[in-house]
From TrEMBL:
Keywords: Cell membrane, Membrane, Transmembrane, Transmembrane helix
Family: Belongs to the UPF0410 family.
GO cellular component, one term: plasma membrane
Record-linked InterPro entries: Transgly_assoc
Protein name: GlsB/YeaQ/YmgE family stress response membrane protein
């Protein structure tokens, strides 16, 4: 696969729309797990970013990520990380 496309999508074997679908689903699941309230577009962005982060975290601990469910699990874990970091940065400091 072209390295540029792989770097942009972060998930080998999936096309652009499948990556968005997994991202949207992962963002929605992560939103529910973290008790956040976002719109569908934000869920999709968080999920796609989470997919990238989750797959990189899996590479660090040498866990293979392939197939729909493993990709979804990695994306959800990454999306939870993204939401947690985002919420920590947004909270007002007292």
């Amino acid at each position: 696969m072209n390295d540029t496309i792989y770097a942009a999508l972060g998930t080998p074997g999936y096309g652009f729309f499948m990556t968005l679908l997994i991202g949207m689903l992962a963002g929605w699941i992560a939103e529910r797990l973290t008790s956040s309230d976002h719109g569908i577009f934000t869920n999709m962005l968080v999920g796609v970013a989470g997919s990238f982060i989750g797959s990189r975290l899996a590479e660090l601990v040498d866990i293979p990520v392939f197939g729909f469910f493993r990709t979804l699990i990695a994306a959800v874990i990454g999306a939870v990380v993204v939401i947690t970091v985002w919420n920590a940065l947004r909270k007002p400091r007292v």
